[in-house]
Design goal:
By secondary structure, this protein is of the alpha/beta class. It is built from twelve helices and twelve strands.
């Protein structure tokens, strides 16, 4: 026979209302000794609070939805882990949806989280040039009904969150590479319709221009490992590295793309960095397992996720935080001896 809240109240010797306030949550808190009696009775009888009753009692479901572009990408899985850390021991459960870069699936995910009455929705992932009016209307309705929206990446109107200054970070990375002695650059710029890849490429190219340099080539393609592999393969077929002169440094607008580029370089019988230097962006955990160690721009990905989780708990809808990454030069961008 199922144990009911009434059974717990009888066991603890309290009213049904008091037992509900203790186990389902309420702004009215019974005395500590009474709360202890009720919890002890619930544990003894094996009673588990009803989630729906809890939501009605405190106007909260203790659910948060996280929407990412690709959960298989270490960038997003690291952020997801950080969000979980940020929610901590609050009792809030994290629901996850992956869109595979399809705007329609992002809208479907938001609708699903709305139907589950989540307390907040966190959107993480690059956006296109223009904001989706359908998504903005959904978010507006959700906020009007008390829901929070936190955005990681590019901000949306009326939302708070963590914005990554991709352009400034890419400029700083280009500056470090120039100071290290690099002068010949190729940019694997990813999808120019995505703001993340576009801003990273723009920042890098802007720094080259201010220094009196220009990229030898800017190659667009999918913002993915496979996209970079194909773009790098095409580049190497059309323009084999010169036997003499300064080596080329390939800037990839994400670490995942850098991994794809390195694969193409090695399949062409070339070496990194001896023949071609490679640089990424993000500093995903996967880089720890790669040889040579890949130069990149480090973003505090797990911390970004944690801040988003903490923002949800503190109801920080309007707060915006801007994060700038740090250049980290490693073995993959070392100059050949004759270029030093």
């Amino acid at each position: 026979m199922a144990i009911r809240l009434t059974d717990v109240a009888n066991e603890a010797g309290v009213s049904l209302a008091t037992a509900s306030r203790v186990l389902n949550g309420s702004a009215r808190k019974p005395a500590a000794e009474i709360s202890d009696k009720v919890r002890a009775a619930a544990e003894k009888l094996g009673y588990f609070p009803n989630a729906q009753a809890q939501a009605l009692a405190r106007a909260s479901t203790k659910l948060v939805g996280l929407v990412v572009r690709d959960i298989a990408d270490p960038y997003f899985s690291t952020i997801a882990r950080g969000v979980q850390r940020g929610l901590g021991d609050s009792g809030t459960q994290l629901l996850l949806a992956s869109t595979d870069s399809e705007p329609e699936r992002e809208i479907e995910a938001v609708k699903a989280f709305m139907s589950q009455r989540t307390d907040a929705i966190i959107l993480s992932g690059s956006r296109g040039h223009s904001e989706d009016e359908g998504l903005l209307r959904l978010i507006g309705n959700y906020q009007e009904n008390g829901g929070q929206v936190v955005v990681i990446g590019q901000p949306l109107a009326s939302t708070g969150g963590i914005q990554v200054d991709n352009q400034a970070t890419a400029e700083n990375l280009a500056g470090e590479l120039i100071r290290a002695g690099h002068r010949r650059f190729v940019v694997l710029a990813g999808d120019e319709n995505l703001l993340t890849s576009r801003h990273r490429a723009q920042g890098f190219l802007a720094k080259l221009k201010r220094t009196g340099l220009a990229a030898m080539e800017v190659v667009h393609g999918a913002f993915s490992r496979e996209g970079a592999y194909m773009a790098m393969s095409d580049y190497l077929r059309e323009r084999a590295p010169e036997e003499s002169g300064q080596q080329v440094c390939v800037f990839c607008v994400s670490d995942v793309m850098a991994l794809g580029a390195i694969r193409a370089i090695r399949e062409s019988g070339l070496r990194v960095p001896e023949d071609i230097a490679v640089v990424g962006f993000d500093d995903i955990p996967t880089l720890e397992d790669v040889t040579p160690a890949i130069s990149t721009a480090r973003l505090p990905l797990e911390e970004i996720g944690r801040w988003a989780g903490e923002m949800v708990l503190s109801h920080g809808d309007a707060r915006k935080t801007v994060v700038t990454g740090t250049p980290v030069l490693r073995e993959s961008s070392e100059l050949r001896t004759e270029n030093r």
